[in-house]
Q: What sequence folds into this?
């Protein structure tokens, strides 16, 4: 199927593994697409945010998707379900995010001739690990990404897939994340100053986010002369289906030991960020850390690891500190270093972080790039139709 010029609007299907992800991270993008005249269709497994997307006026379609792992029978059924759905709703372009839509929505869409834009929002355990399921996933990536336009959030991920010959240079582009609403995530005056310097880690509670290094660093600081000067928080959901998940017992142990204050899950992340002095993310790898961008946009200094998707946000010693990955001692030393900064130094560090976000990662910049990509696909499809038409005429 090619893009149907007989319809008044081009239909763009936005496909993800959760409606929550779309509502919280891509609402600005899909609203902008609609404002530009596209008909936006949302495809994701049903959750409480699916109805919120419908309330915003978007067409929503449920798709059953098991995000826990690779089951060949479930995944074949997922390809079939995507295929049947696309036959029914007839999208003109697929905008896929996250691993399973990138693979299975692509395979179904391309079999119907639908142009595809795949978004690599992070390589995660698929490329961090070397187990059989990761090998299978990498092989599926190679097949699914062939002959589609692929968007990367950082240059390291892009180069890695180029080196592994999973993508080709002519079919890739770099867009820095999903874009930050710098008006929503802006500095807020705190009515109360923290009695202790407060660090906050925001992440799903899995080992790949560096949660254990954060805890070990806290223990190192607690046992030093800095221990009485600071407090530590964690914001994020348990993710028990993930193979590297932190257990409820581990989490409760840290709480009982007095190491952390656990905030659970929140849809109002900016409020929690506004209440702390610095944000920490010792992740092993990211696509492009939205948490760090949001914190920087709110003028909070940040500490993170020198890895893809994290170092893109931080200029070391400018708007935060970069530390060695998987090193609790390096993380603790950076936190101590931040504790020694003056109030003016901390303020200046935060302001430089917001300036970096506005100049490089704003929602407006990201939306403009996606609109350009969609126009590029429409133009390519138009040219292909013209070539096909001229070829048929020549044949007669």
A:
């Amino acid at each position: 199927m090619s893009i149907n010029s007989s319809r008044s609007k081009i239909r763009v299907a936005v496909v993800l593994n959760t409606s929550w992800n779309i509502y919280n991270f891509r609402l600005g993008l899909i609203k902008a697409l609609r404002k530009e005249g596209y008909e936006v269709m949302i495809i994701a497994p049903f959750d409480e945010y699916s109805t919120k997307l419908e309330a915003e006026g978007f067409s929503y379609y449920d798709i059953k998707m098991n995000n826990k792992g690779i089951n060949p029978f479930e995944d074949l059924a997922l390809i079939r379900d995507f295929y049947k759905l696309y036959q029914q709703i007839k999208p003109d372009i697929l905008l896929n995010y996250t691993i399973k839509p990138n693979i299975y929505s692509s395979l179904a869409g391309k079999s119907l001739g639908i142009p595809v834009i795949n978004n690599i929002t992070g390589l995660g355990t698929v490329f961090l690990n070397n187990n059989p399921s990761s090998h299978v996933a990498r092989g599926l990536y190679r097949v699914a990404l062939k002959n589609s336009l692929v968007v990367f959030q950082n240059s390291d991920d892009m180069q890695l897939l180029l080196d592994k010959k999973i993508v080709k240079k002519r079919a890739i582009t770099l867009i820095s994340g999903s874009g930050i609403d710098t008006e929503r995530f802006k500095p807020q005056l705190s009515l109360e100053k923290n009695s202790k310097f407060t660090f906050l880690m925001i992440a799903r509670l899995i080992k790949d986010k560096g949660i254990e290094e954060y805890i070990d660093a806290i223990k190192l600081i607690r046992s030093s002369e800095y221990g009485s000067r600071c407090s530590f928080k964690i914001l994020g959901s348990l993710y028990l289906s993930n193979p590297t998940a932190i257990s409820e017992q581990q989490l409760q142990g840290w709480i009982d030991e007095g190491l952390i204050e656990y905030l659970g899950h929140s849809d109002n992340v900016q409020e929690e960020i506004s209440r702390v002095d610095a944000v920490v993310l010792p992740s092993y790898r990211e696509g492009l850390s939205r948490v760090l961008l949001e914190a920087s946009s709110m003028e909070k200094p940040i500490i993170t690891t020198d890895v893809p998707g994290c170092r893109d946000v931080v200029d070391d010693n400018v708007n935060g500190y970069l530390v060695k990955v998987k090193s609790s001692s390096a993380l603790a030393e950076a936190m101590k270093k931040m504790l020694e900064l003056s109030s003016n130094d901390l303020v200046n560090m935060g302001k430089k972080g917001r300036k970096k976000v506005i100049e490089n990662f704003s929602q407006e910049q990201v939306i403009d790039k996606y609109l350009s990509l969609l126009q590029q696909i429409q133009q390519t499809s138009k040219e292909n139709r013209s070539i096909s038409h001229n070829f048929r005429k020549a044949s007669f």
